[in-house]
Write a structure and sequence with these properties.
The protein is built from no helices and 35 strands. It has 493 residues and is mainly beta.
Length: 493
Amino acid sequence: MMPHLLALLHVAALLAAAPIAAVAGPIDSAAGPIDVADQKQLFIDHRFIAASDGIELHMNPAQKLGLVRDEQGQPLQGHISRVIEDEGKIRLYLGADSVEVFESDDALHFRRTGVTISAGGFTTIFVDPHETNSDRKYKLFYLNFSPPFDPAVHGVYASYSPDGVHFTKVGRVLPFFTDNPPLVHWDERIGKYVVYTRAFSYDSENQRRIGRIETDDPLQPWPYHKTDHDRMFFSTENVDVVLAADDQDDPHSDIYYNASAIYPWAQDAYLMFTSQFRHFSPRRNPYIRAREEGKWEDYGMLEVQVAVSRDGIHWSRPSREPYFPAGLPDEWDRWYTVMGPGLARRGNYIYQYYYSSGRLHDSAILRPEYDESAKQLGGVGVVRQRLDGFISADADHHGGWLTTPTITFRGNRLRLNIDTGAMGTAFVELQDADGRPIPGFTLADCEEIGGNFIDQAIYWKGNPDVSSLADRPVRIHFKLKRAKLYAFQFTQK
């Protein structure tokens, strides 16, 4: 690791967090309608909030379910290379260098497959939904590096496989040491592959940032900005940075991992589960005992937060709260939590997996009194999130409302992912492009929505059929009380 320098770079304003409160405002009827077709739409930002009152966007923490264990009941350990759902199985690729493959049917109970993949550093796997050649369905990327760095040999390498087990090497795709797993995705929206990986800033304490690459073929050399002073690390001069710590973060922090995902169950929903790293120093944290006397390393704490985007380029962070809490000092996942890349769905829930060392970064213990306090030190944990549940548009018990911009849709039903609990309610009105209630679809006609639903149809005096409004510019007006609104979708039934 490079030593941290002292200057803090304040990043561009577009990287600052979006405002959480959704404020009332005039509706711009001149703006063209958004075609939502029959795709699910999430309330991860203000795209579908043209006007509102009493509404706030909230990040909803995931629920920790505990350690992941193998069939013998032993806790799993190691860096999470990637989590893949394929052919009805959930595969957990575990390890930074030599990667062991585990499988699960239910996202909770894993078994060893006996398969180990040995490639290189920070090995990560990608199932390519765009690939037409079945021999190349799986793609693997890894770092080839041993000191000193050799720019003619070292960097990111690629392989491919028909089964995710037996890989054929292709060659080098990036001539830099990223010190981070490069995460490759197929982005159907733009018809290209995108890669998210670390971009290193040599002259800032905010060293670690997230860079983005577009390519037509991830098995061929990736495009980057070449300079006349390229060095070992893939730097902020070599790639476009799309996310970094900003002036709302601790000034001694940066982003360690990105755990990026293109959410497959809704339209235009890009997510990162960033590992935010707060650096320690001998001056601020003199009580830290270096592993080697007189040699300070890159000590500090990490936690997982959430970033969202509609295009994978422009990102916002709706909250600076942790996506799930780190453990207490006597628990296995204290001080250091990093999310593994990949989402697994079972029914109405999304399962995600994280790793903790149970130590600070670079393996120190916070204070001597905690040397023996944790019976289990480190492991792999699982968290659960409701489908679409990462961010919601919320009204408290005083009530609130929101109106979408003008949209067009296909289908004959409007369905919601919403939670009012027992004591909250919601009502829905469909309006024309100028904000006038459409007869038969007014608030007065709407039957009360109350309860916790993933996929609830809306009824107006017993009638759920909205097909007469399909392909017409309309707005959706929501009246909410003590409610969390996650998503809406027009469907055929």
